[in-house]
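Thought: the user wants the 3D structure for the chain below. I'll pass the sequence to the structure tool as-is, report back what it returns, then summarize two notable features.
Action: structure_tool
Action Input:
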Amino acid sequence: MALNMTLTMPRSLKLFAAALLLATASLHAQDWAKARLDASPRHHEYVPLKHGDRTVQAFVVYPEVKTKAPAIILIHEIFGLSDWAKEMADELAGQGFIVIAPDLLTGFGPNGGGSSAFASQDDVVKAVSGLDPAVVNADLDAAADYGKQLPAGSGKIASVGFCWGGGKSFAFAAHRTKDLSAAFVFYGPGPADVSTITAPVYGFYAGNDARIGATVPATTAAMKAAGKTYDPITYDGAGHGFMRAGEDPANTVPGNKTAREQGFERLVKLLHEMKGAPMTSSGSEGRKKGTKAVASILCHDGSAAPVSGSM
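Observation:
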């Protein structure tokens, strides 16, 4: 006589196991980025940037070059200062730039921590979404001021932002009117008021990202009416977040990879053009106004999706 025994797992234990699996998957979603970062030959350091009664931690990467270099303020996605954001900073430094990536969640995490102190990605998204724009600009000012006074720096500064950070890069251009040489906006919306912008703004957008793409025509019209330099490019076939998704080994969307490669090439080219241009007090040097092109690329949705393959 055969004994048929079925072992059942209590529902509470199943839920715990599922939650643990999800947390582990999220934790290791960017292991590929961390591995690349760990293998980098460049100098990395964490620097406390003080302004007023606040101190924001910043990840700083130096290029291996003989001459002084511009400082790039890298503004992270809605996922905080992730391994990918730091790997992106390192990759840009590899092109000859000092990169300063402030953790804009510094002090807002559990026990006064930053991005890495939060228990889940969803908690990070909620915290970033609730940041005070004035505090964000003050933090970015501190990063820019730090970059300008570095002995290894050339005195030039630019902002580069992704996703949520893309919108903040655009907003920073409207705020930092005295010495910003350029602002680079990856799939982020423009500010309500563009009249104060003095630096050229370069946009990188995804064809499969209607949430952000739908804002580009109005932004283009506003920048044109205000006499500002705005050069947006849309990469067809890409989804929101293509700069990260396009280099993620788990990416299954060809357009993301294409957009990532073309977007990075364009970014580096523009940064080098900025690097060689004369310094001006208004930082208005840049590409010819009104240029617009369409390439073949992809991006990601702006919702709180998993880090791997999302914005």
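Final Answer: Structure generated. The chain has one domain: 33-231+265-287. Confidence is low (pLDDT under 50) at residues 1-9, 12-28, 280-311.
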